[in-house]
Amino acid sequence: IYRDHNNSNKEPWQRRLYRESYIALRTESLQLRTAKNDESELSNGKAILITSPDMKEGKSLVSLNLAISLAEANMKTLIVDLDPRHSLQNMLPAVSPNAGLADYLMENASFQNIINQTQINNLSIVISQTKSGYDLSEFLLSKNMSAFMQIARENYDFIIFDSMPITLSSESISIGSMVDFIILVTRSSRTKGASLTKALQIMNNNSMNAIGIVITCLKTEKKYKKYYKQIAVSH
Q1: Is the pLDDT of residue 144 over 50?
Q2: What is the Cα 154 distance to its own chain's centre?
Q3: Residue 135 class from Cβ within 10 Å (0-12 exposed, 13-18 middle, 19+ buried)?
Q4: What are the phi and psi torsion angles at 71 (to 5°)?
Q5: How far is residue 116 CA from its own chain's centroid?
Q6: Mean pLDDT across 190-200
Q7: Which residues, listed in sequence order, are joined to residue 216 by a DSSP beta bridge?
Q8: How far apart are the first and last CA of the chain?
């Protein structure tokens, strides 16, 4: 239900186009995982940070759709919500966690206690914090966060971090050194050039391994309509 960017008025061919876009992103992620494993001792898990230059760029939607797409490909996937101000929990209403990542980092909950199964096979979620009001940014560089990463890598094929906009908070910078790759999400006709430049500069200054930019809310050109209609008919 998230692939059409929350617009139920899209035509079937447009929804299929969106779906194919996420499948392509999934394919790139799988290829990068293979390439990374050839160069390192990582045998399980691939950590990807998804952030944006500013608010309302669509990063949470991209994070969730990529996670769903990976899960549908039989990849055991964990999505970690690092944006408490705009929680992914609102997009997954069936999930009612008792504890979040901050509880684990403060040693108030075990790893198993903060893992929440979703209604989608192979997809689990960890929220950032509970109502305890912890400041998550204070603990992302702790030894407990390193322990979380190690356990997650051992138990999941992919770990997707939906983080806050990189120009507005330190969370993305803190977690950026722990992940393998970073995807920057921008929004067509909305992202300002100055914000994008600042985001890229921050990532470069902190040696963050950005692999590409995803552009959301692009206008779907009608030239694709005939092609995707033909695919639908053939199926």
Answers
A1: yes
A2: 19
A3: exposed
A4: -65, -40
A5: 16
A6: 89
A7: 187
A8: 21
Cα(125)–Cα(90) distance, integer angstroms: 12
Structure tokens at 187: 């929004």
Residues 24, 45: Cα–Cα separation, whole Å: 19
* Helix, strand, or coil (residue 185): strand
CA distance 185 to 143: 29
Report which of 232, 234, 162, 191 is spatially closest to residue 20, judged by C-alpha positions. 232
User: What is the overall mean pLDDT for the chain?
Assistant: 79
Residues 6+ apart with CB under 8 A from 154: 44, 45
pTM over 0.85: no
Are the CB atoms for 166 and 51 separated by under 8 Å? yes
| CB neighbours of residue 214 within 10 Å | 19
Q: Confirm if 139 and 60 have CB atoms less than 8 A apart.
A: no
Would you place residue 212 in the very low, low, confident or very high pLDDT band (cuts 50, 70, 90)? confident
Q: Based on C-alpha coordinates, what's the Rg of the chain?
A: 18
Task: Judge whether residue 146 has pLDDT over 80.
Answer: yes
Burial letters for 68-100: b for 16+ Cβ neighbours within 10 Å, e otherwise?
bbbbbbebbbbbbbbbbebbbbebbeebebebb
Contact in structure between 42 and 153 (CB atoms under 8 Å): yes
H or E stretch including 104? Answer: helix 101-105
Distance (Å, whole) CA 84 – CA 133: 10
With H, G, I as helix, E, B as strand and everything else as coil, classify residue 128: coil
CB 228 within 8 A of CB 13: yes
Q: To which residue do tokens 């999400």 refer?
A: 185
